[in-house]
Amino acid sequence: MTVPTGRRERKKAATRQKIADTALALFLERGYDAVGIRDVAAEADVAVTTLFSHFASKEALVFEQDEDFEQALVRTVTDRSPDQPLLSALRREIHAIVRHCASPDAAPIWQMIDRTPALREYETSMRLRYAESLAAAIAAGPDPAPTMTACRAIARFVIDAHPLAREAPDPEAAVNEIFSMIEAAWEVALSA
Hints:
By secondary structure, the protein is mainly alpha-helical. It has helices at about 5-30, 35-45, 50-55, 60, 65-80, 85-100, 105-115, 115-140, 150-165, 170-190.
């Protein structure tokens, strides 16, 4: 997350983080479906309207770093050095995301997500949004892009590498295996 510079921005960021931390603690303690928005607001000592000014939905409380991950993926494409290959940069970023999400501390959160239909659905829609943002960045980038369809397909493969690798016995090896296939597919798309 970008570090806020002004006092007001720092206070807003601290409130947002407090709400997210409180929600996650309650969800893990009582179960996602057993906790309501009012419960989270009361425990975080904020008004329900304040909670909704920071989070659009109950599901968003679980995925509070959602926008940060999406922006990081796009920046991986747009901010990389001209000599760094596109897929090499994306592989490195997916490795970082998988390390973050496959850590022992994250296991209870993913278990909760996996057993909660609303959270699984939210995560799926989030991944589709990431893929569209990533495809647009790839298409607009300095590398030659064959077609928008190819950019969208590769972006979806990259995004789907995260849940596949996170669930694998060896997440690091899984990312490398998946990216070997992605790189082969990208080469085919470029040569078509």
